Amino acid sequence: MSEPASTSRLGPRSVIGILGSGQLGKMLAQAAGRLGFRTHVYGDDAGPAFDVASAHSVGSFTSLARLDEFAANVDVVTYEFENVPVVAAEHLAKTVPVLPGPKALAVSQDRQVEKTFIRGIGIPVAPFMGLASAADVTAAEAAMAAWSGPAILKTARLGYDGKGQLPVATPADVASAWRDLGSVPCVLEQRLAFACEISVLAVRSLDGAVATFDIPRNEHSGGILRRSIVPSGLPAPLEAEARSLAGRIATALDYVGVLAVEMFYLGPDAATPLVVNEIAPRVHNSGHWTMDACVVCQFEAHIRAVAGWPLGDLSRHSNAEMRNLIGREVDEWPRLATAPGTCLHLYGKREARDGRKMGHVNVLSPRSPD
Amino acid sequence: MSEPASTSRLGPRSVIGILGSGQLGKMLAQAAGRLGFRTHVYGDDAGPAFDVASAHSVGSFTSLARLDEFAANVDVVTYEFENVPVVAAEHLAKTVPVLPGPKALAVSQDRQVEKTFIRGIGIPVAPFMGLASAADVTAAEAAMAAWSGPAILKTARLGYDGKGQLPVATPADVASAWRDLGSVPCVLEQRLAFACEISVLAVRSLDGAVATFDIPRNEHSGGILRRSIVPSGLPAPLEAEARSLAGRIATALDYVGVLAVEMFYLGPDAATPLVVNEIAPRVHNSGHWTMDACVVCQFEAHIRAVAGWPLGDLSRHSNAEMRNLIGREVDEWPRLATAPGTCLHLYGKREARDGRKMGHVNVLSPRSPD
């Protein structure tokens, strides 16, 4: 893959190209707009980002002709989701910078590659084993028996919000779980008992500077993020270590933009208190609180990075709790619109399907003393 | 003029129509987008608001056919500037709600009507006299002699950012100043010695609830707003009085949306410490700090009001200083992009002409104790 031409600093009215028309693309486009950029969103359907962009195109992510038209109209390309086909990113990168770069995409699209990469730079991950074909089942059963305790089987590719995952109670259940996931390449991981889940939103600029937002503690339910709470309540040295791990990953990927690194905190007595669960080469739901509680939010930080700008001040002025509005929960908006300290964000999606992220609120309160 | 049909509460994906494509229209459109609304901007040229709206139309504000097309595509109409022709607002109001209502437009488009209205509801304004024709010059000279001290002559219509204004040192200068302003209808006002200028951003909802943002102290130079600083430093009872005056004006106008009320503070010893200078039936430059320092900003509050929503929490979490970037000052953006506590807003205008508002920064600091 050709490396993108060195992006010079893009000036006002440059055009930020965004692949993906969902809520992350929408919030990226709005942040770009605030900085005086124009935006062009490319999506395979007309999602909410189209409503706030300067221009938009509907096209498949595999239509090179449509992608060429898009590339001709933008000064840089970024994306809202990690499943942009690498072939599309490679094709675009021939004519326009694509940031974050293709390496981050390739690594994060396959759980086995991702975990192997993270472990390879000396950062703890849960014990795991690839399960690519039926021939691997016996070895996976043996590995699980050696870890002891329950495991999780995850498809190597295209999982999100708990989709493509099944719990595995005993080694004898590995084979049936793999069949239930369609016998596609999977990763079997030890299910770790953790004290809490956190995430680090790291940002790396084009010149290699790394900064991190304050760290949220995240609560999931049914595989979907429900709440992110800042400050996390974790001890400061542990947060410093988490920031450092995320920065090391960003640097090792030669990353540009916001990188989300999800971690488990296993508790103070664990040999490795922090274990990286997964990374996302993009802005992230657990960073939505930054929109209302920080000087520069994750969306603006990402746009600044891909535009070759300095990252700015990511500091937090308020405590924040982000709550997702999922499916019909969005119907609560009239009550939420009057709630004290409550910043309401509605994505403007047409249909409130079950499990669909329809909006979020950031509830602010005065910043606790450090 | 027909009153608009009672607006029911608009739901997500409703279309907010915005007259005017400048930076205020842009920031209104971005706020509407955050709430899940779509936006349609109508401008007489392709201004920055076009870059962030769901749809846009170029048309004259007097083309009823173009306005009809616009009206057919939106659920409510609001505007970013007070010089929307009343005939256009009246025409639109036949088929779609226009908020704030036509009364506010009519009153604020003519300084003499505006000052007469404000004085008429018992609120102090500077001594003034209309100067509609040459026949009024002698009376204006006499009025000025009676006030004592210098005066200002302002065109009754279409002034902004100090344009259409001339200082008048002595009564003998009235006639020449009036000629220099083109012998159009003017208002002669006593120039008051004031301690400082403040503004109240009041918001009134469709059901008549009034709320106000915290009060900025404003600094002008050459007739253009340079800085707005919050908190203002004024005594709390005086701020309470200022909020009350602005609320009375909003209610008397049967207003819906954000109303900006500029006031002079004449000092503690004045008979009337607060005097209203002028009003603007729209979001206002002196409220830009609310974008980064309040739970709900002036743009969102305005959109909420015209959509029939509750106003939400307008409280302020940080101290703020807003500085305008005027003309070539915008070239400082690379330095401002790294400054601590600094939220950067660039409007994306094509040309940095002298005196043109190109962007602003909001510099945040921890909120002072009340």
The description of the largest β-sheet of chain A is: 9 strands, antiparallel
Overall pLDDT score of chain A? 95
Rounded Rg of chain A: 20 Å
- Identify the biggest protein-protein contact and residues per side: A-B, 50 and 51 residues
Per the CATH scheme, the topology name of the largest domain in chain A is: D-amino Acid Aminotransferase, Chain A, domain 1
Multimerization state: homodimer
Count of helical stretches of chain A: 11
Shape of chain A: globular
CATH class of the largest domain in chain A: Alpha Beta
User: How many discrete domains of chain A?
Assistant: 3
Q: Examine the secondary-structure arrangement and name the CATH architecture of the largest domain in chain A.
A: 2-Layer Sandwich
Q: Which class best fits the helix and strand makeup of chain A?
A: alpha+beta
- Helix/strand order of chain A: EHEEHEHHHEHEEHEEEEEHEEHHEHEE
**Estimated helix fraction of chain A:** 25-40%
The CATH superfamily of the largest domain in chain A turns out to be ATP-grasp fold, B domain
Write structural notes for this entry.
The structure is a homodimer of 370-residue chains. By secondary structure, chain A is an alpha+beta fold. Chain A has 3 domains: 15-98, Rossmann fold (3-Layer(aba) Sandwich), CATH 3.40.50; 127-190, ATP-grasp fold, A domain (Dna Ligase, domain 1); 196-366, 2-Layer Sandwich (D-amino Acid Aminotransferase, Chain A, domain 1). Chain A has helices at residues 23-34, 64-72, 86-93, 102-108, 111-120, 137-147, 174-180, 236-252, 290-293, 298-306, 333-336, and strands at 15-19, 38-43, 55-58, 76-79, 128-131, 151-155, 165-168, 186-190, 196-204, 210-212, 217-221, 224-230, 257-265, 274-280, 318-326, 342-346, 357-366. In chain A, the strands form 3 sheets. In chain A, strands 9, 10, 11, 12, 13, 14, 15, 16 and 17 form a 9-stranded antiparallel beta sheet that branches. The longest helix of chain A has 17 residues, at 236-252. At the A-B interface, helix 1, strand 16 and strand 17 of A face helix 1, strand 16 and strand 17 of B.
